[in-house]
User: What shape does this take?
Amino acid sequence: MQRTDRRTLLKGGLLSIAGMAGMPSLSAAVEQATTPYNRPKLKITEVRTAEVRVHGYQVHVHIHTDQGIIGQGESTDAAQGNVPLIRSFARMLIGQDPLNIEAAFERIRTSGVFAGAQAGQYVTALTGVETALWDIAGKALGLPVYQLLGGRVRDRVRIYCDSGEREMIPGDERSLARIKQIQDLGFTAAKIDIDDAMDPARFDRVNWTASNSEIDHMLAKIAFTRENYPRSIDLAVDMHARYDATTGKRVAKEVEKFKLLWLEEPVPAENIDAMREVRASTSTPICCGENIYMRWGFREILEKRAADIIMPDFQKCGGLLEARKIADMAHTYYVPVAPHAVTSPIGMMASAHVCAAIPNFLVQEWHWIDSLDLWRNFVKEGEIIDKGFIRMPERAGIGVEMNEEAARKAQVPGTPWFEPVQTGRGRG
Ligand code: MG
Assistant: This one.
């Protein structure tokens, strides 16, 4: 056995101190500031909200702390009615350490079991709050959020462009201009809608069985779009969960020749057996789940092999950690994740942190092509998509900050703008 005398111990000690002195700032910060004994505890002091309407309805959440750090979150789609819900959550947040995110999520989720906490507006409101807590955690620890979600497996996140409000009409000049615009912006994937309530071939506004002529119109839109994009651009097609199973199966079969990136929600996702039946009937990849919430919502879809790709919306399905858990569950079935996304750059970037951290990421949606000016000014960092990719920032937290002057242009009239929420516990 080697003898260790005092001199050797002293030398070793001095070397480690010297090593620490030369450490990069992150490890030094971890050594010096994050032991359980000396990490300064953060406390939530206030929760504030603002409502905007761009592509759908979004609620922005600001969570304030006693050390001046403010976390930003965004909830979308099922966001109407989120403000009173968030107000009711505030009493479970104020005074708490914002870094204990799982605990805050479970406290709010389980307290709402009889109040709709299984899905819908409740989970969407919780998502905005949870996202803001991640922003705080990142800012407090000096790390980008992806670093706290397992670290990044990619430096940039591939984004696909939804065509926006511009319906693809074969031969139409404005449709061609939109296709060119998406190409010029550098996207490598795009999506179009083929469900059309105003199709002249429809006999009925309520029943969603498509006639032969209506299916012909759908196929013509896809053919036109496909032939005007180069083959290197992937194309996805959305049916918006409107049609019955007969139509869903017919369309899925007819579109096989286009080799789509996916066919989205050919039937509503609520009946998982019907979705599975469509998927089993075709070689077209089937994607679903933009209105499904939390792990429990995706469990049966995955177990029954009802989808080739899932598309949870990370700004409403339960939050960033919940998104990571859903993605990990999908990974065990070798199912990729292509998140639905319609939010501002704040929610888009928050979602991108998860996309950067999960191995089974496919592509993330972007839906603001009809609001480009607002998109480019909504956060102080400006445009975050470069040639169809979000490059992940090194900044702490989510990495973008709202430009309130620009964002306020989309404020829902008559709604408050980040005013303090009254919780019944005094100002908060
Ligand atoms: Mg969709």
About this structure: Residues 1-23 have pLDDT under 50 and may be disordered. The domain at 148-406 is CATH 3.20.20.120 (TIM Barrel).
